[in-house]
């Protein structure tokens, strides 16, 4: 191979002709969006849609400034600033691979204690949207009550020290305080995380936190800010040596390339208090009711990851595609979806829930996407309550089957014991891993212990239909293994 070309603005013209690159003058771009939590998904999704608009000569004043609030975000900042905030996007289709350089991001604010640089940036008049991907577990939600957790130490700190916050929400509140004091209009706050009613949840976090320190500011935010709900969809694996090697295969030295599938979807409520790019021109769907799209995606795709991810981890299967090639896991996915989840999901225009299951099964099975089981099984303490348990609650209320959903919970409990069936260790994979592991070991002899985690299950553990089914499955898994449980449920 010829010498690799380090990715930068100065070297774009040296890249192979097979690699698409920005058709716009990046030097003429000006910022309009701050994005907090700038990881792979944002760069393959929101930034890509904006990049497409810019390639048409539009949205030149909506460029993205990246931001992060965690210490390890500084590493991403260094990587991206080192290549002029450019990203190599590598699309992994079942039969072809292509690469494109995305240039919609132009800067990354300093990552620092107190978040002064981030607050100052968001307070600038040019910033009209602040968007976030801080993960499902990053919104300080009590899993059982769905209320904002005012007692979390970081929230207590931000309420007492509003000018030097620790959280993204505290930084947003501080920036909005500055804008109000300067006579500026607020920006739109836009969540791009996988949460039902993510805009409403973001609004809850920002307004509630503001009210703890400045009730008048909270009233102003509630009246003047907008928090659109949105559904985002694209499978984007984590970046590791294999992904870096794929970029090198195109002759590019990129410290943080992103691989992704060919499918993308973005559905947003059209509620933007300070304007927005013309995203509809490049395929974004705008609606005043995003709930149906959210429910279909979260309950089928995201819950589907949990249904197959935990058992695949127990069995030592490495990727989602490999799990879907396992006959019993594939059958588990399809049976749980069609008989237990689909009955609780309403159709959306152009797509029935059953059709969506087939689409997701096809996407999960794409062998070119090396989406790890470890990634999709991460943070089950947020993802099971957010993605799986709503269908379980609805099924119990309607009297429809719940055996597969109960089995999925049993597989999760078994996974959290921390060992695979071959005896190897499962590395900690949840912010609550120590607690989950302790309870998982208790549940081996007393399954009800797992369901007594009311912060996860609320009152579900008191419902005998679910409790009895969960107990049978967990006892079978520990006694005879996951294969026996899969055979009992799927019949194969």
Automatic annotation (TrEMBL):
Domain Mannitol dehydrogenase C-terminal: 289-477
Keywords annotated in UniProt: Oxidoreductase
Origin: domain of life: Bacteria
Gene Ontology MF term list: oxidoreductase activity, acting on the CH-OH group of donors, NAD or NADP as acceptor
Pfam families documented for this protein: Mannitol_dh, Mannitol_dh_C
InterPro entries linked to this entry: 6-PGluconate_DH-like_C_sf (IPR008927), 6PGD_dom2 (IPR013328), Mannitol_DH (IPR000669), Mannitol_DH/Oxidoreductase (IPR050988), Mannitol_DH_C (IPR013118), Mannitol_DH_N (IPR013131), NAD(P)-bd_dom_sf (IPR036291)
Record-linked Gene3D superfamilies: N-(1-d-carboxylethyl)-l-norvaline Dehydrogenase, domain 2, NAD(P)-binding Rossmann-like Domain
Domain Mannitol dehydrogenase N-terminal: 32-280
Protein name: Mannitol 2-dehydrogenase
């Amino acid at each position: 191979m010829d010498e690799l070309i380090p990715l930068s603005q100065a070297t774009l013209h040296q890249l192979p002709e097979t690699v698409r690159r920005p058709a716009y003058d990046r030097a003429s771009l000006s910022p309009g969006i701050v994005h907090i939590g700038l990881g792979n998904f944002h760069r393959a999704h929101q930034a890509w849609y904006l990049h497409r608009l810019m390639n048409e000569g539009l949205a030149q004043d909506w460029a993205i400034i990246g931001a992060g609030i965690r210490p390890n975000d500084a590493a991403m900042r260094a990587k991206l600033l080192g290549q002029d905030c450019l990203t190599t996007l590598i699309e992994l289709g079942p039969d072809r691979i292509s690469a494109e350089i995305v240039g919609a991001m132009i800067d990354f604010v300093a990552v620092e204690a107190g978040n002064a640089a981030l607050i100052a940036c968001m307070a600038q008049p040019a910033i009209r949207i602040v968007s976030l991907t801080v993960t499902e577990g990053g919104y300080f939600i009590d899993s059982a009550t769905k209320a904002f957790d005012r007692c979390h130490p970081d929230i207590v700190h931000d309420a007492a020290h509003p000018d030097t916050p620790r959280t993204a929400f505290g930084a947003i509140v501080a920036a909005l305080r500055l804008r109000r004091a300067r006579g500026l209009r607020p920006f739109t706050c836009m969540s791009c995380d996988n949460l039902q009613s993510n805009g409403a949840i973001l609004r809850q976090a920002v307004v509630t936190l503001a009210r703890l320190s400045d009730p008048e500011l909270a009233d102003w935010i509630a009246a003047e800010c907008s928090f659109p709900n949105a559904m985002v969809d694209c499978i984007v694996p984590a970046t590791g040596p294999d992904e870096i090697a794929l970029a090198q295969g195109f002759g590019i030295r990129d410290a943080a390339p992103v691989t992704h599938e060919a499918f993308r979807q973005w559905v947003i409520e059209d509620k933007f208090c300070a304007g927005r790019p013309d995203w509809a021109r490049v395929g974004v769907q705008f609606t005043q009711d995003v709930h149906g799209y959210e429910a279909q995606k979260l309950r089928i795709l995201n819950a589907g990851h949990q249904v197959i991810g935990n058992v695949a981890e127990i069995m030592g299967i490495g990727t989602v595609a490999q799990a879907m090639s396992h006959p019993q896991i594939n059958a588990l996915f399809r049976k749980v979806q069609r008989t237990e989840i689909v009955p609780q999901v309403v159709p959306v225009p152009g797509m029935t829930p059953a059709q969506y299951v087939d689409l997701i099964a096809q996407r999960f099975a794409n062998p070119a996407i090396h989406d790890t089981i470890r990634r999709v099984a991460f943070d089950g303490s947020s993802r099971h309550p957010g993605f799986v348990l709503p269908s379980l609650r609805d099924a119990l209320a309607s009297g429809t089957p719940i055996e597969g959903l109960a089995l999925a919970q049993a597989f999760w409990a078994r996974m959290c014991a921390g060992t695979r069936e071959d005896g190897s260790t499962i590395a900690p994979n949840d912010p609550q891993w120590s607690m989950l592991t302790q309870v998982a070991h208790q549940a081996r002899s007393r399954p009800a212990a797992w369901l007594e985690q009311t912060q996860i299950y609320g009152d579900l553990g008191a419902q005998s239909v679910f409790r009895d089914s969960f107990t049978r499955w967990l006892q079978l898994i520990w006694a005879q293994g996951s294969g026996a449980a899969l055979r009992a449920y799927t019949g194969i």
